[in-house]
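[step 3/7] inverse_fold.run input=structure_tokens len=663
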């Protein structure tokens, strides 16, 4: 098996180049990786035998039943409809797990509503003395802070099961909000949580199980912590060496046996807060096996001060973390002020749309490929030019590649008119806005850059991707930009402000994406061969199906939006009905992976490129090969028609752009 050194995608041994970024593939050391995995498993097993990683499941104080949380299999000791001590009537189950159940309860005397958490005795220490839990948890009833869900009462049911009566908090957790969460809202969440933690720590206890499900945005717009102070009580009453907490959010010292006596250090909560902030900013937990790029890179979206704070919170050494939650809150307040003081990004406003239809000659439409073609080559010294795009008027060609520079060529010119430098590493995608003087480029550094092609000025840098950006496309009205890369999401940006609108998550790594002609739907392909068409108004997948046996390398709508064409590592090009998802044609002929495709503006022709170093022209309706255009390279990574349909350009793994035109 081989692997791409840039995007880490794996391929069979017969492949020489990655179809996503044209990099030469390296032999994948499968045996070494398996040996390392076995070593990690042995180390984890030894730690488990020592009791260092025995996990005590965390009781979630949920205010609505989590959809992904199954009912417990053991018979509960108390059920809906029961009345506890003649005062609390349990009306409905809110959630629960191995440790116990959470119900919505009504106080029959005051007619007020509360969350009632009852614990399972068999999950606590054997022969726990009566009243021990109440004595341990009673101090929590004195804790008062607007950011902490209060504890009203603790006690034991008639049959001796420990319970707590908690403030009933209704709202949503951070990951139920529209993604991506705005940077200002992430800062606000972090500041309010830090202020609540400061009050909790001043009270003399810690949270111990801080995670997104325990952070709730109330209808009043403030954040509130659930299950405050409960974890230390549970751990004190649980069997020896049990760890109350959620893997992924626990501070490293919580799992070390030699530090078990000091685990209640408040800085363990600060680590968990850092994990939550990292997950909101980067879309994933900070622990990654293969971080291709820094996921928390400072820039226009993430201020450097914010990045330094999050990385400090995640330091494995508690002494290196901030000294207190109050200090964290002060830093986040300053970051919020910095964000609010930023000037608005000045991007060109979409004003017009260029003609949608290809230019027609006096004698009729341009007829590919029957018309006489001429070829042309644009050379670049020393670097590959793997991605290309035409401007809306067809007068400028953009190309970029390994040196991170976007070059612009004019008609008939062999010398670049301008060179746009700014990316840190190779550029994998370029796209012009159809309605404004705006050029987008995406690269291995995980950023999207917006340029004014008239002045060569960098207008904005869009940060948010946690991996390389491999595809970029504008909507026809120029107001939406869609990008995808090596992560598991598609990003939608407001092309008039440079701000992210939302992300679309995928169960598999996204390898290609495109917009419908009207800009109302997104189609994306995955590393597992899936295709999904998503309605951008409802955010629902309208069509989803397994389109290829291997990774999708390119996907595009036809100019009229009726068809979707997809290319794959499996050496096939397939055409589908955009309305029903029914396959209309399978085009075979590429001896190796198909890496690029593009529709002619008239929709009557389809161009493809592959690892065999040739561009092929197909009749998409008949599903037949029309012509093969040889290229002086071993891999074609992108193809594009001019808006008028009278020229075709191809990016390759060589330092040149191949072009063909109608004479």
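[step 3/7] decode complete -> sequence:
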């Amino acid at each position: 098996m081989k692997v791409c050194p840039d995007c880490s995608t794996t391929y069979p041994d017969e492949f020489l180049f990655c179809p996503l970024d044209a990099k030469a593939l390296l032999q994948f050391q499968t045996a070494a990786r398996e040996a390392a995995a076995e070593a990690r498993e042995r180390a984890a097993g030894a730690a488990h035998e020592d009791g260092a990683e025995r996990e005590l499941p965390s009781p979630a104080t949920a205010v609505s039943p989590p959809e992904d949380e199954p009912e417990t299999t053991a018979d509960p000791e108390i059920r809906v409809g029961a009345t506890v001590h003649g005062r609390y009537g349990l009306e409905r189950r809110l959630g629960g797990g191995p440790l116990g159940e959470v119900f919505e309860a009504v106080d029959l005397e005051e007619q007020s509503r509360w969350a009632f958490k009852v614990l399972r005795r068999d999950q606590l220490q054997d022969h726990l003395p009566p009243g021990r839990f109440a004595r341990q948890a009673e101090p929590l009833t004195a804790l008062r802070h607007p950011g902490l869900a209060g504890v009203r009462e603790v006690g034991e049911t008639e049959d001796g099961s420990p319970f707590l009566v908690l403030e009933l908090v209704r709202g949503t957790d951070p990951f139920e909000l529209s993604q991506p969460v705005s940077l200002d809202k992430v800062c606000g969440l972090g500041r309010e949580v830090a202020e609540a933690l400061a009050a909790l720590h001043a009270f003399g206890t810690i949270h111990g199980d801080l995670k997104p499900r325990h952070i709730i945005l109330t209808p009043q717009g403030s954040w509130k912590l659930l299950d405050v102070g409960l974890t230390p009580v549970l751990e004190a009453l649980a069997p020896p060496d049990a760890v109350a907490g959620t893997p992924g959010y626990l501070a490293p010292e919580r799992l070390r046996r030699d530090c078990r006596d000091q685990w209640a250090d408040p800085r363990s909560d600060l680590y968990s807060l850092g994990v939550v902030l990292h997950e909101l900013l980067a879309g994933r937990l900070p622990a990654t096996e293969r971080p291709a790029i820094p996921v928390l890179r400072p820039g226009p979206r993430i201020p450097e001060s914010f990045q330094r704070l999050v990385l400090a919170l995640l330091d494995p050494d508690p002494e290196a973390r901030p000294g207190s939650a109050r200090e964290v809150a002060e830093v986040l307040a300053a970051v919020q002020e910095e964000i609010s003081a930023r000037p608005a990004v000045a991007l060109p406003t979409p004003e017009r749309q260029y003609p949608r239809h290809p230019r027609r000659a006096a004698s009729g439409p341009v007829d590919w490929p029957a018309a006489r073609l001429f070829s042309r080559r644009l050379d670049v010294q020393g670097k590959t030019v793997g991605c290309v795009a035409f401007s809306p008027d067809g007068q400028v060609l953009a190309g970029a590649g390994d040196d991170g520079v976007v070059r612009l060529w004019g008609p008939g010119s062999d010398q670049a008119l301008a060179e746009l430098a700014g990316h840190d590493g190779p550029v994998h995608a370029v796209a012009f806005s159809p309605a404004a003087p705006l050029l987008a480029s995406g690269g291995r550094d995980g950023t999207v850059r917006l340029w004014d092609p008239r002045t060569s000025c960098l207008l904005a840098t869009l940060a948010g991707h946690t991996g390389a950006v491999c595809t970029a496309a504008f909507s026809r009205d120029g107001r939406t930009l869609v990008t995808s890369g090596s992560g598991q999401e598609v990003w939608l940006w407001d092309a008039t402000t440079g701000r992210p609108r939302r992300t679309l998550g995928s169960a598999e790594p996204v390898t290609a994406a495109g917009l419908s002609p009207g800009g109302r739907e997104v189609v994306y392909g995955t590393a597992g061969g899936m295709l999904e068409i998503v309605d951008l108004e409802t955010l629902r997948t309208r069509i989803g199906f397994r389109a290829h046996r291997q990774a999708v390398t390119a996907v595009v709508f036809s100019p009229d939006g009726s068809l979707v064409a997809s290319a794959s590592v499996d050496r096939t090009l397939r055409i589908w009905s955009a309305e029903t998802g029914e396959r209309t044609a399978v085009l075979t002929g590429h001896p190796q992976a198909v890496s690029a495709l593009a529709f002619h503006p008239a929709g009557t022709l389809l161009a493809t490129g592959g690892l065999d170093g040739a561009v092929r022209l197909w009749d998409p309706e008949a599903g037949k090969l029309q012509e093969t255009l040889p290229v002086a390279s071993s891999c074609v990574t992108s193809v594009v028609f001019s808006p008028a349909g009278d020229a075709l350009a191809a990016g390759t793994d060589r330092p040149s752009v191949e072009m063909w035109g109608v004479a």
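[step 4/7] annotate
Residues 28-44, 46-76, 288-293, 359-365 have pLDDT under 50 and may be disordered.
The helical segments are 30-49, 132-137, 183-203, 230-237, 267-282, 304-313, 325-340.
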